[in-house]
Design brief:
Layout: H1 2-43, H2 46-63, H3 70-76, H4 82-114, H5 119-126, H6 128-145, H7 149-172, H8 178-197, H9 213-278, H10 286-312, H11 314-321, H12 330-355, H13 360-380, H14 384-408, H15 414-442, H16 449-470, H17 472-486, H18 490-493
Length: 502
């Protein structure tokens, strides 16, 4: 029994280190992203963003199949033998080559759909990334699987920094939409090289497809879920690009990209650590339950305030990040932020499903979003791009609770604990929205958007502090979140001596 406890403690200590490392790495990546957003919005016109968004919509759809779900299945698997490891590597290379060819083949069709000829060469220039991903995707997955999160994060951080520098340099050299292609190729290339340097494992170039079937049974549902979810997020962009043009799509896609930052750099990376950790704990153990609940709470506390700011002060946010030429995107940012907040909450429930091997539920939950999104686009179309944004956001909000119930049902205590874990973050978001609204009105006379934002944030934080002073639970959660960021609460994150919502 003591050996089992020691093993669990070791897993949870690695998890705590992984969360801390992930937060630090994502802070670096967010800084790179903010720098690139601020700079690139001023040197690449909305049309250029729109053209790249058209090419990227199809490219990233193909990218969902870059490992056919085998990477996630490998992280979730308890054990992998050498035959499986070598076959996984060979499968990654094979899939990368196939996707490279497919990208070249479908590029003209994508350009024809969007009625924009420049999309073809842009998409074809992106195809080389699949070869790089095929060569490095597996070894990066192995770092995650072995809970060597700090090494994996170091690889990602350096790749992001070098890629951002290359992208900005390309933008200043008047590469236009190809600047974003430069980022893709450089960041993936650097990450692949560094990942191989971080591991001692080397392949023997053998391929036994049959030994991958157990992983495929898990991974196929993950891939199908990702494909359906991505398709749902691209339907609105496809409609806008075809019927409203590259300028409107540039405004819409840039708003969407801003709202993916909290998910891309906080919820998803921490969710990957959560999957790797929970996969090595017994689903029926107290540690599994506590660790899941105590990780969901700080993630939500970190993510939801970002959406609160975009909902209450979209004009100021757009003005500061993108510049005055992009202010037409403000109503889009507000509408899409509402839907993004609801969608982000579902991502953490997906981590619990993957860890328990119930990946088939992900497919069912994602499939529901397709018809809902189509109906939302149809209803919003007469009101233009703004109407589509509102319709999509409404569909995301209405489907959030049913999808959460479906994902967590029959998992002991999951629905109750997950809901309890989100109460505090929900209160925090509501208080911040009220404070930001009051501060926005008070600072409305200010000519400086930055000063207006500082005043609003100050009032919002004062309001949150005042409420936390009279609500002990909220106060404990906010302190725990700060300690989570600083990496000072590894024992609580691990589920030792911590509260499990009941």
């Amino acid at each position: 029994m003591s050996s089992g406890n020691e093993q669990t403690d070791s897993i949870l200590k690695k998890a705590a280190t992984g969360y801390r490392s992930t937060l630090f790495t994502q802070a670096i990546r967010v800084l790179c992203k903010i720098v690139s957003v601020v700079v690139m919005a001023r040197i690449v016109a909305p049309e250029g963003f729109g053209q790249f968004a058209m090419a990227a919509s199809a490219f990233w759809m193909l990218a969902l199949f870059r490992d056919a779900g085998l990477g996630t299945a490998a992280v979730q698997a308890r054990t992998l033998d050498q035959r499986q490891l070598n076959s996984l590597f060979s499968a990654h290379l094979l899939i990368g080559g196939v996707l490279t060819g497919l990208t070249w083949l479908v590029a003209p069709g994508v350009a024809h759909w969007f009625r924009s000829a420049p999309v073809t060469p842009i998409m074809q220039s992106m195809s080389g990334a699949f070869l790089i991903i095929g060569a490095g995707g597996f070894v990066r997955t192995q770092l995650q699987r072995n809970l060597q999160i700090d090494r994996a994060n170091r690889v990602e951080a350096i790749g992001a920094v070098v890629g951002t520098i290359a992208m900005v340099a390309a933008g200043m050299a008047d590469f236009g939409p190809y600047s974003f292609v430069v980022f893709l190729l450089v960041s993936e290339g650097v990450s692949t090289i560094l990942a191989w340097r971080e591991t001692t494992w080397r392949p023997n170039w053998t391929f036994h497809p049959g030994c991958l079937m157990p992983l495929w049974r898990v991974g196929r549902h993950v891939t199908l879920n990702q494909a359906l979810a991505f398709l749902a997020t691209q339907l609105d962009g496809a409609a806008i690009g075809r019927w409203f043009g590259s300028h409107s799509l540039g405004l819409y896609s840039r708003s969407s990209q801003l709202l993916t930052l909290p998910t891309q750099f906080i919820a998803l990376p921490l969710g990957q650590v959560l999957v790797a950790t929970l996969s090595r704990l017994s689903p029926t153990s107290d540690q599994f339950e506590r660790h899941a609940a105590n990780t969901v709470t700080p993630i939500a506390h970190l993510v939801l305030p970002c959406y609160a700011l975009c909902i209450v002060m979209p004009d100021t946010t757009i003005h500061l990040l993108l510049g005055s030429d992009w202010l037409a995107a403000s109503p889009l940012l507000r509408a899409l932020a509402i839907g993004s907040a609801a969608t982000t909450l579902i991502l953490m429930a997906q981590s619990i499903n993957i860890a328990t091997g119930r990946t088939n539920r992900l497919t069912h939950a994602a499939a529901v979003t397709i018809p809902l999104t189509l109906v939302a686009i149809y209803l919003g179309f007469p009101s233009g791009v703004d109407g589509i944004a509102l319709g999509v956001a409404g569909a995301q909000v209405l489907s959030a609770i049913p999808r959460l119930w479906w994902l967590l049902r029959d998992t002991p205590g999951a629905v109750r604990n997950y809901g309890s874990a989100l109460i505090g973050p929900g209160i925090t978001m509501a208080i911040l929205m009220l404070g930001l609204s009051a501060g926005d009105r008070m600072g409305g006379a200010m000519k400086s958007p930055a000063l207006q934002l500082l005043i609003a944030l100050g009032i919002a934080l004062i309001a949150l502090t005042a409420v936390a002073a009279v609500l002990p639970r909220l106060r404990r959660e906010l302190i725990a979140t700060l300690q989570f960021i600083a990496g000072l609460r590894s024992s609580n994150l691990a589920g030792n001596n911590s509260r499990a919502p009941k």
